[in-house]
């Protein structure tokens, strides 16, 4: 059987959960990678999915700054394929078109199977830091008003109360990942790849025609991500009534304390 790629890695989470930091870090484990950003569960036929333009190609050996070039499709010259799924609401299902479009790619490139190794990384960030990033990024509207329900859905999957994300899956605590090298080594081992922190300090340039980066710092720390104060974003809103009201949800607080320890507010 002929495999298109050795590693197929899906990085998944609600927006502003830190998944692009995880993706940057994973990219640093390889030299040649294709990455598709922003897959959502309920794309219709006019939206981008896998078998379309918008693939980002990284050759991290030739471009150590992790800059990317846009490609119309995947080709054979890669070591891994990364797919980023961003959840907007309460549904953790995968986009149903992904498997169909994998088959189309395989037919076009004359391969039998898409990947030899497949992993789904589900990223969870502490609710107080994630909500702070959401408010800084989008204000106090839309998603922020539904934040508790969305975060609770993610936390229940993280804790194994639900089992929606495909296997083999890795649950990744973003706050712990950011500060703990041993934890990062553990994640690399679970992925079956040789540990590297080469991409740890890279802030991804995400978006078409715009650079978003961090909600708080934009691209100010593009090569020094570890200098960002991502584990204490909540302090900017600790006296904000809206922020405190969203985080007063009893279920959210209980789930958060099981995963992240004592609630800071």
Structure description:
There is one protein chain. With 265 residues, the protein is an alpha/beta fold. The protein has one domain: Rossmann fold (3-Layer(aba) Sandwich). It is built from eight helices and seven strands, in the order E-H-E-E-E-E-H-E-H-H-E-H-H-H-H. The protein starts with a strand and ends in a 5-residue tail after the last helix.
Explain briefly what this protein structure is.
The chain has 265 residues and is α/β, with parallel strands linked by helices.
Helix and strand arrangement:
Layout: E1 3-14, H1 19-27, E2 32-39, E3 55-59, E4 69-71, E5 80-87, H2 97-109, E6 113-124, H3 127-138, H4 147-158, E7 169-173, H5 174-179, H6 181-191, H7 241-246, H8 250-260
Parallel strand pairs: 1-5, 1-6, 2-5, 6-7
Antiparallel strand pairs: 2-3, 3-4
Structural key phrases:
265 residues, alpha/beta, Rossmann fold, seven-stranded mixed sheet, 30% helix
Give the count of helical stretches.
8
- Total beta-strand segments: 7
Q: What is the strand content?
A: 15-25%
CATH class: Alpha Beta
Largest sheet: 7 strands, mixed
Shape: globular
Question: Could you spell the SSE succession in H and E letters?
Answer: EHEEEEHEHHEHHHH
Helix content: 25-40%
Count of spatially separate domains: 1
Annotated CATH architecture: 3-Layer(aba) Sandwich
- Cα Rg: 18 Å
- CATH topology label: Rossmann fold
Q: Provide the structure class.
A: alpha/beta
Average pLDDT, all residues: 84
The end-to-end span amounts to: 54 Å
Strand arrangement, major sheet: 4-3-2-5-1-6-7
